[in-house]
Amino acid sequence: MNNVIYEVGERIYIGKEGRKKIISVLGRLNFEDLSPNARNELTYVCEKLVLANEQRFVKYFNEALPVTPRLHSLELIPGIGKTYMMQILNEREKKPFVSFDDINKRCGLRDVVKLITKRIIEELQGNTRIFLFVKR
User: Fold this and answer.
1) Which one of 4, 38, 70, 113 is separated from 107 by 20 to 30 angstroms, measured CA to CA?
2) Cβ(74)–Cβ(64) under 8 Å?
3) For 31-125, which CATH superfamily applies?
4) Residue 59 in 3-state DSSP?
5) C-alpha dihedral over 127, 128, 134, 136, to 10 degrees?
6) What per-residue confidence (pLDDT) applies to 70?
7) Where are the chain's structural domains?
8) Does the predicted model carry a pTM greater than 0.85?
9) pLDDT tens per residue across span 36-89
């Protein structure tokens, strides 16, 4: 499959039957193996995926649990400390969140999409011990 053109952010089917753009899958690609161009596009592509899966991430905010008695999984998202975590927990008890805008407005967060994206990139880089959104 020579001369195949790939678009930034394009989903490419990698199942066994019906591959159109690749011949075989050699294994999982690590962050350090990405080209400089791919690294530059990663934030954009991750933000796009987070927005496309909004309900999955909103559900996470509605159902997130503590990791240890002193650390809540919400605190693992960059920009969310104890104060925002408590605000999120209090607001979701009143009524579950329905969208990113709902989380931003009710909790005072600036841009929850960027915060989630930053966490995903940290996990892809291997800079975390606990994985919330990325499979190891």
Assistant:
1) 70
2) yes
3) AF1531-like domain (1.10.150.280)
4) helix
5) 90
6) 94
7) 31-125
8) yes
9) 999 999 999 999 999 999 999 999 999 999 999 999 999 999 999 999 999 999
